[in-house]
Each structure stands twice: as C-alpha cells, then as structure tokens.
Amino acid sequence: MADLMEKIVSLCKRRGFIYQSSEIYGGFGSCYDFGPLGVEFKNNIKKSWWDEMLRGHETIVGLDAAILMSPKVWQASGHLTAGFADELVECKKCHHRFRKDFLEKNKCPDCEGDLTEPRKFNLMMKTFVGAVEDEVNQTYLRAETCQGIYMNFKNVLDSMRLKIPFGIAQIGKAFRNEINPKDFIYRTREFEQMEMQWFCHPREADKWFNFWKEERMKWYLDLGIKKENICFREHEKGELAHYAKKAVDIEYNFPFGRKEVEGIHNRGDWDLSGHEKYSGKELSYFDEETKEKYIPYIIETSGGVDRSLFAFLADSYEEIKGGRTKTTEATKEIEVVLKLDKKIAPIKVAVLPLVRNKPELVKKAEEVFELLKPHFMAQYDEVGSIGRRYRRQDEIGTLFAVTIDFETLEKDDVTVRDRDTMSQERVKILDLTQFLEKKLSE
Ligand code: ATP
User: Fold this and answer.
1) Distance between Cα 112 and ligand 1 center (Å)
2) CA triplet 276, 281, 282: central angle to 5 degrees?
3) What are phi and psi of 7, to 5 degrees?
4) pLDDT of residue 95
5) DSSP E strands: which ranges in 354-423?
C-alpha cells in the first residue's frame, strides 16, 4: 500500500495534478499547489458537492464568509482554550516533535530517544491585522469554515426569510498549525473544507443527524468510491470534540490506513449559545406557528476537499500489468487508468490526430478541438504514437478520446474511444458535441 502512495504522489507531480509548494526553495512544510489538472479536479469535486447541497435540497443556501474574523469569535467557540489543542511531545535526543495520540509507544519513532512530558499545543494560526504587530491587532486564520456560518445565522435567516429546519453551505480554506502534517495532502496546515450547517429543532436533532449521515455517504458512493473502501465510525464518548454531542466519521481506506474524510456532528446549541453569551446578541429562533422560542441545534457535515480528492484518486487508480491494449502496439508495460467518475474527471475529452506529419489531418483535428473546446474540458495531443497517447489520457482519467484519421477526411466522422471499455465507435463530426454531451450526462 505504501507503494500505491508513492505512485499516486509521482503521478500527481508528473501529470500536473499536485506539486510541492515553493519547490525551488526546497518546499514549504506541508503546503501543496494544485496544478492545471488538480485545479480542474478540485473544482469538479466542489461543484458536485455544491450542486448536491443546494440543488438536491431546497432548504439549503450558500455563503462565502471572510477567512479573517474578530478574535472574539475564537474565544467564544472554545478554539483558544484547551478544546482545540493537541498534546505535543518532543524527543530529548533529536528534538523532533510529535502528536502524542499518533504515537504507538512512549519513545521517539525516529531515534528511539526519550520523550518530554506532553504539553498542550494550540492549533490556531496567528496573524496581525493592521500596521502594528501587537496583541490588540492579533487575530487568527480560521481553523474551520463553520464559524463564518454561525456569524451569519441571523443575517441569512432574516434576509432570506427562512424557516427552521434549513441549512447554510460553504466551501473555503481553513488553517491549522498541525504538529505532524503528513501523508501527502491528507494532513496539511492549509486545506479546504466543504461544510454544511443544518439548523433544526432540538427535538429533531437525532433524526436529522441520521438523515445527513446517510446523505453524505451516498455522495461518495455516487461519485464512484467503492463500497468496500468506505465506512462509518462512531466516536466514543471520550473522543468527542469539545462542541460535539454526537459524532460519526466517514472513513476511507487510504494507502496508510482507514482515516477520516468527513465528520458528521451534532453540535447541539454549543455554538449559537456561546456566541449569544459572548456577543450579547440574541441568536434564538422564534417559531411563528408554535410561538416557541429556542436556540436551534446544529447538525454539521464537515468534509475536506483535499482529503476527498485524495480518496477519489486512490480509489480510481488501477494498474494493468502488461497493458490492456490489444489493437495498437503491444507495450508489455504497466498501464495506469484513473477510473474517475465522469462528473469529477478533470479532462472529459482528448482530441488526437492519428499522425502529426499529415497537415490535412492535423488541420481537421484542430477544427474538431475548436468545436469541442467551448463545451467540454478538452485536451489536444499530437505527440507520440496513438497507443501511447491513449495511455497518457487513461492515466489522467480522460473519459473519451476522439481520433481523426484518414477516413475522417472522406466521411467527416471520427472514432470515439471510451476510457473504460476501450470500445471505439464512429460518430459524424456534426453529431459529435451532442453525442458526447449525452454520454457525459448518462
Ligand atoms: P483529524 O482528527 O484528522 O485531525 P478532525 O477530526 O480534527 O481531523 P474536523 O475538525 O472534523 O477534523 O474537520 C473536518 C474535516 O476537515 C475533516 O474530516 C477533514 O476532511 C478536513 N481536515 C481537517 N483537518 C485537516 C488537515 N489538517 N488537512 C486536511 N484536511 C483536514
């Protein structure tokens, strides 16, 4: 499995998905940049989540709150106290630092040295707003996107004239000064979250918790994650976060083990009550029908864009030893296919002239590329043998390859090759856009 990890990291760099941040300066601790294919892939995941939340459920609205907020938010939320701190230990010999709960024994995993007593290490990233770097101007990069949602609970409720239950969804960056960032993009200090906060009557919290738990699992399965690689894990009482009444993780079978990709939490009235107390502003809800006033409970679905992207990558990665190509040149090499779902695959269609030394073929292929480009994320490739080009596209998960050959010049049709079945069919150029649109929406 460690081998799979190396292969994924290498593929990501080689094919323009993910690069180490600031690489020419030796890299920058646990930060990654998403390349041309990575950003497409990521945007597709985010769009799919956004559509699922906002179009799939009529009572959810969107929000894009600022990353920087009043430091009072973080006092009220409990993030500046022990609640949002991990236990840090340091090796007395090599001075490497570790998160205590990640260690299997009480020795340094790097040199077997003795460890210091654990101390609390707060994960909030500090920054300063304004010209003077003093305590008054100090604030934090948000550690979770949901606080921006709580800040706007009343604004959204009033301006959108909503009734409980309803949800607010948001996608955005979050920052945590993790002690041990590791496992590629799994645990980083800067990452992106997709969070939805569902405001409901306390009596109905359990019902909604179960509802959202199932909905979220369905999203991963619908986007192609194999059932045997994903599961729920309920939190024990002792491991619940400071805000949670109940929590379940969705865990994926990563190359380094089963780990959380998303959490579903019943946060009770912790957040709104806390902010009401600290701000002095009323944050309760008045039900016009029952004349009841109460602080809503919050059911949260909190997923990581980067972690889910990693799970989609790992799950769709397939190697075929000796190659699967029967019609074009035999390779004897290992062929890689990324069997990404059509909604999230970064490139939908590749346009390939059969050979590149025939100007009339190249001209026609360029015309076909221009035709498809406004409709689909498309890539043009004329370098290397056709078999090699198919393999290059399979490796990045491209769904269809359109080949322009000599018959095209006579009949104005092309072959369309399907990534998964490798079957090829001839389609008139005139019908090509519609044909692909239909295939991609099936
Ligand atoms: P962990 O136990 O792995 O540190 P957590 O339980 O603290 O995670 P939550 O606070 O529930 O995580 O955050 C919700 C989601 O945000 C996680 O399921 C994950 O997808 C994402 N996330 C949290 N921390 C990170 C990180 N350091 N790097 C990448 N994604 C993260």
Assistant:
1) 29
2) 75
3) -65, -40
4) 84
5) 378-380, 400-404, 413-418
Q: What dihedral do alpha carbons 221, 225, 228, 229 form, nearest 10°?
A: -130
Would you state the structure tokens that stand for residue 197, as one six-digit string? 């906060």
CA 273/CA 239 separation, integer angstroms: 22
CA-based nearest residue to 190, from 174, 202, 166: 174
Residues with CB under 6 A from ligand 1: 144, 176, 178, 187-188, 191, 193, 260-263, 302-304, 306-307
pTM for the full predicted model: 0.93
Q: What is the pLDDT of residues 134-174, one digit of tens each?
A: 777 889 999 999 999 999 999 999 999 999 999 999 999 99
Please tell me the number of Cα atoms within 13 Å of 127 on its side-chain side.
14
Q: What is the mean pLDDT of residues 76-105?
A: 83
Ligand 1 center to 104 CA (angstroms): 21
Whether the bond into 255 is cis, omega within 30 of 0: no
142: closest CA among 198, 76, 43, 73?
73
> Is the distance from CB of 146 to CB of 302 less than 8 angstroms?
yes
The full DSSP string for 306-346 is HHHHHHHHHHHEEEETT-S-SSS----SPEEEE---TTT-S
Ligand 1 centroid–CA 304 distance in Å is: 7
- The closest residue, in CA terms, to atom 25 on ligand 1 is 187
Q: Which two tokens stand for residue 63?
A: 């929000």
291: Cα separation from own chain's centroid: 41
Contact indicator for 220, 230 with CB cutoff of 8 Å: yes
Q: Are 278 and 306 in contact (CB under 8 A)?
A: no
pLDDT digits (tens, 9 = 90+) for 312-362: 999 999 998 877 766 555 556 788 999 999 999 999 999 999 999 999 999
